[in-house]
Design brief:
The protein is of the alpha/beta class. The chain is 41% helix and 20% strand. The chain has five helices and seven strands. A seven-stranded mixed beta sheet has the order 2-1-5-4-3-6-7. Strand 6 and strand 7 form a beta hairpin. The chain starts with a helix and ends with a helix. The mean pLDDT is 91.
Length: 178
């Protein structure tokens, strides 16, 4: 009987060690790049009473996932173009999901949202886990995700998202049916 419990203990230890090692090696084994499946994340939905949400909420939709912070100057330049893209393409089905990595109180992010007149989904990840999950190198960083959950475009740094080229890309993605 004692041998069985020792064996159970060894198996549990090995499984735990494998999970820990796998978590640390995941970015090397599964790089977040164009063509890869967009990884799952969790964040607080500031538009929905601070409820927790995840990428699953947007399953089957074309998503532009933007990772940013209120203290980031390039983000301040980029976010108005995301709002213009939301105005142009949101009614056609584009979901812009913007995840703030600000670690402070949510009121700072909400004030930023009001000051900039942002109407797309604003989430906050105070733990900043999304940076590790998406293997970002800074902010802003943006991922265009198709209806099948695949990353089709990845951009680091500020971009003009409502440019004709980006609007054409979004139109093509929205026209595809999963």
């Amino acid at each position: 009987m004692k041998r069985q419990w020792i064996l159970v203990g060894v198996v549990i230890t090995l499984l735990t060690a494998g999970a820990v090692i796998g978590t640390h090696l995941a970015p090397d084994i599964f790089p977040v790049e164009v063509g890869a499946r967009a990884p799952q994340f969790h964040a607080i939905d500031l538009n929905n009473h601070g409820d927790s949400t995840s990428l699953d909420r947007y399953k089957g939709q074309v998503v532009l996932l933007n990772i940013w912070a209120t203290w980031c100057e390039p983000c301040r330049i980029e976010l108005p173009s995301l709002e213009r893209l939301q105005t142009a393409m949101g009614p056609q089905g584009l979901k812009i999901v913007s995840v703030s990595i600000d670690t402070g109180d949510s009121s700072v992010v909400r004030k930023f949202q009001r000051d900039y007149g942002l109407t797309f989904d604003i989430l906050q990840d105070k733990s900043r886990a999304i940076e590790r999950i998406y293997q970002t190198t800074g902010v802003p960083e943006t991922f265009v995700i198709d209806r099948d959950g695949r990353i089709l475009k990845k951009d680091a740094g500020a971009r003009i998202w409502d440019s004709p080229d980006n609007q054409d890309l979004v139109r093509r993605l929205l026209a595809r049916r999963g």
